[in-house]
């Protein structure tokens, strides 16, 4: 239902009719006898005065300007004006129903405006002025109540000033309508963009978090970063829901840089996802080749003044179209080749491409209307999520299938062994011993003799019914890279082996000791609380300093950073305890090293 509601919002009251009979002519829009049933775009011929900030007095003799358009577009008022400067626009509206309470919707105008209605100052965005020092730019859409118009006549005076953007002026039409329709439409669009923004941010964060659990596959990471970047882009444009949700009012220069950079970085993340998901068809070299122009363009937006890089909007739009063509072509090829799940993403990609093309034309004043990108973003991300989840499901089904095949093979092997004669019993026993050794090798780290990461996670799962308190320690040897760099990897391996032996000496029979990888170790202490865990950590620190490494007497005074969590496996997920201990260890690592810390939320 929510998605259906979002889809219908593209046709709300803010999507105004711009019918020919309602266009202004000679600076006048006559609505006599023409009921306004929905917000009306104030398009057509306005009176125009260049390099004037006027209250509209004497505007009958001013030249005409076809709205909406920026004044640096040729032909709108006789010739093309420079992008930097200031001007006044005037429109007389006649025949308004005096019984109606009216309101105005003002899309963002580059880069500041002041609006007067019948001589009364009613709305402004930023601050207008006649010099760069006086002008203060702004961002975001605005709306204002006008109330009833007693005589049905309304003179609108729009003062616009720009010294910060390449183009200036009202490039989208102002909308006039009944107050209830304008306010309802404005609220609906704010909610519409906020809902899509929250969905994008939530999806992106979940995907990034999923990658932190399984770092072998970067598909989710690229997809999560791409989703978050789309969220930043959506949240800072149009109604800017990210700003009002976080109560932010950033400087205009920072705002415009974020707007452009997020637009240009998004395709780079998309290409990264394509390479990660379809590496055989979209190689690393292709990813780098197509990403390079976008990264260079983003660098220009970071280094150049806004006045310069906003002049490149047409080029940036061309790059975005290139990104749409590249990604769509790649997906079409993958669909043709029958790549798994590619058909799910293709419709979303094509819809997003249509939305991007529409908005590029909108930004270049070749179309008028509302942005399509928010809904295009959401549909595209949903299609990519479906592909991602479907691939995960297929992978799990493949694991189940292979496991079932292995189970059948083992059953067949058992039957054959059972049918063999007594003379082959020794060979069967030897085979059983070999299988047991393989299982041990699968569970035990070959260098230290401790459990490996997978075996520890299985132990945590199997101990869920353990009723007593447990302590989890995440231990990271300090400055281990210096040992490898200074004495060689053989010395590093000797240190790891000696440290594993030390852990076995300190641990009890019921404790679980594991090497997680590299110089990181974990200890699971059963029937142990915070006090016992601290005692273990102190003993470990003391004996580690005194540890002698065989054949490497020059290596001494070792230390480690330790994070500790305490809980009950029946109440708290074992991996959650492990991750919390990891975080506590990093806090020690980034502060003092050679110490330990109990995670604040897990001290019992």
TrEMBL record:
Judging by the UniProt lineage, the source's domain of life is Bacteria
Which metal ions or organic cofactors does this protein require, according to UniProt?
Answer: Mg(2+)
**What's a single GO BP term from this record?**
negative regulation of bacterial-type flagellum-dependent cell motility
Q: Nuclease among the record's keywords?
A: no
Q: Which keywords annotate this record?
A: Coiled coil, Membrane, Nucleotidyltransferase, Transferase, Transmembrane, Transmembrane helix
| Coiled-coil segments on the chain, per record | 399-430
Q: According to the UniProt entry, what is the EC number of this protein?
A: 2.7.7.65
**What is the protein's species of origin?**
Thalassolituus pacificus
Got a GO cellular component term for this one? plasma membrane
Protein's name according to its UniProt entry: diguanylate cyclase
Cite the GGDEF domain residue spans from the record: 468-601
Q: Which reaction does it catalyse?
A: 2 GTP = 3',3'-c-di-GMP + 2 diphosphate
Any one Gene Ontology MF annotation carried by this entry is: diguanylate cyclase activity
The beginning of the lineage is: Bacteria, Pseudomonadati, Pseudomonadota, Gammaproteobacteria, Oceanospirillales
Can you tell me where the transmembrane regions are?
190-209, 221-246, 258-278, 290-309, 315-336, 343-362, 374-394
Does the UniProt entry include the keyword Ribosomal protein? no
Q: Which Pfam families match?
A: 7TMR-DISM_7TM, GGDEF
